[in-house]
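pasting for ref
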Amino acid sequence: MAKGHAEQSPWIRTLFQQAINRYLDENKPDPIVSKQMKAWSLDWMDNDKDEQNETETNSDYLLSGRLTWKSNDATSPLQVVLFSSCSWRGDKKDGSLSLECHVCITGNTSSTIPTTKDDKRQAKADEKIRKRLLKRFLQDDYIQKLYVADASAVKNTESTPILCQATVILKQASDETSVGDLEERVWTDEDVAEGIRRAVWNTTNDTIDVLEFLLSLPCVLPTTAWESAMVETAIGDGLSKIQTTALADRAQLRLLEDAMYDACEKEGEEEMVKGLDLEETTKKRSKATE
């Protein structure tokens, strides 16, 4: 089993609020976006040992599990489940890192159990609103493609769409006069990010925000931004640091570059279409005045 697998998940849960606060501080979104982010609930669960693949078990460190991302609003109809696996070995001079994130969207349920009559009445009212909103949300093509009725029944993540993949391999030079080898392969899916945005973060207009936030979470990518974070150990006998790697920094940067490139390319295509439409309209007007 990878060294960082079991002991890191209790630490991660304590860092979710820090991740949200850090994102708000660095990006300073408008009040509507901030309000929605502050209402989020994030939870992480480790994968079982038998769910690890050969690449993961041969690594020095491993973060593998599922992240549940939803709103604390009782009427919110959807939640996002991210199946994430990040394994790495070595360091920034000689090492490798592999990341793969699959996504599905499922219905949200209330996490509170009503005890009084008023609570039960309110819970029924909230459930009616959730069902009505869910029906409306599922008419959205982006959400519908990611939706599954029961995320807990998803055992094989290969059946769910991929949000992003990254591979970083660094090989140290044989001597001081030689240059080492670097291999970087990344891929992001803008449509999957758009589905996530519409499901749980509709106050932002940019899918890059979705990817940037997820890649800032220590359970997805153990970047060195978290190297000074002090958290309680799994057995609660003191404070310790989480395991981070500079390889994750490279992966994060390349993934965001890929997403930005795709966004620019798409925007350029849309501008070209607008230009063609404008040109066609101009021609029609010219013929009409002849």
